[in-house]
Design goal:
about 10% strand; 11 helices; alpha/beta; about 290 residues
């Protein structure tokens, strides 16, 4: 009789623990969009989807054309890197408010993760996990268009067109500066901090902007020439015209060199499921022991 009761108890435990896990997973379903380059082959499309670990039947897939990419980059120094095909792809997942922008890259050679983050904040993107990728090595300049388009698809809201153009310019200016300095991280940190100061202090005078740039470059032990300083002044003159809240700016962009390396470890959903499994094992063992008491 005790064995029978024990078996029933185990079955009840299995069902009671399994169903909440299943229901929780459905309730917390991920909101994500994948933007694929329109000129990818079918094999390359599958390669990108596999790399992003998504099921094409469970995620919204959109395409970005070469013309769309060119619209934002044609007037920048990156115009010669556009090419004639749309290859760069992006995975964009909406995160909870306050989690900021988190970027990972694959086969992207010119645009760094920090450069994407800085530019995306300027464009108006918030709280998103992003993967910018390609099936082979590309500069990555065109991926920004796909990321912005995917974010608009998730939220159902259009980003400001002027802000998107300036975001592309910011990415290119930062990339060029990184090449000239021989350090992309320093360039990204410089642009981020100058942008924060200009917006927070509401600076509009070019000479005041120059003072901020000179002050921060010394702080970072960077030496800019006059041409580089003028390019940053021109960029900031455009950025200050965009409605960006400085608190949002600081909240959205992660600190250089301190990005999350293990997403699963910090994922509350994963922690919750693991906790339930641990409780289940403990209860199961207790039930089995009770059978023989």
């Amino acid at each position: 009789m005790k064995k029978t009761v024990g078996i029933i108890l185990i079955a009840v435990l299995l069902l009671s623990l399994a169903f909440p896990i299943i229901n929780s997973t459905k309730a917390d379903s991920i909101q994500a969009v994948v933007s694929l380059g329109a000129d990818l082959t079918q094999e390359q499309r599958e390669q990108m989807l596999n790399f992003m670990n998504v099921n094409p039947e469970e995620v919204n897939i959109i395409e970005v054309t070469n013309q769309e990419e060119a619209n934002y980059l044609k007037d920048t120094a990156a115009a010669n890197q556009i090419g004639s095909r749309a290859i760069s792809s992006a995975y964009v997942e909406e995160l909870k408010k306050g989690q900021g922008i988190q970027v990972q890259t694959h086969n992207i050679t010119w645009v760094s993760e920090d450069m994407y983050e800085n530019a995306l904040v300027t464009a108006g993107v918030k709280d998103a996990k992003i993967i910018a990728a390609a099936p082979f090595k590309v500069s990555g300049t065109a991926a920004l268009t796909g990321i912005m388009k995917a974010f608009e698809t998730i939220t159902g809201e259009k980003l400001d067109e002027n802000a998107k153009k300036i975001a592309n310019e910011e990415m290119v200016v930062t990339g060029e500066l990184g090449e000239e300095l021989g350090n992309k991280e320093d360039a990204s940190e410089l642009v981020k901090r100058v942008k924060e100061e200009v917006i927070e202090r509401g600076v509009t005078d070019p000479e005041e902007i120059k003072k901020i740039i000179v002050e921060i470059q010394h702080d970072l032990n960077i030496n800019l020439n006059e041409e580089q300083i003028q390019k940053l002044i021109q960029l900031m003159d455009k950025i200050k015209g965009i409605n960006i809240d400085v608190n949002t700016l600081k909240e959205q962009v992660s600190q250089i060199g301190q990005k999350v390396k293990n997403v699963a470890e910090n994922n509350e959903e994963v922690k919750g499921i693991l906790g339930k499994i641990t409780d289940f094992v403990k209860k199961l063992l207790d039930a089995i022991l009770n059978i023989f008491q």
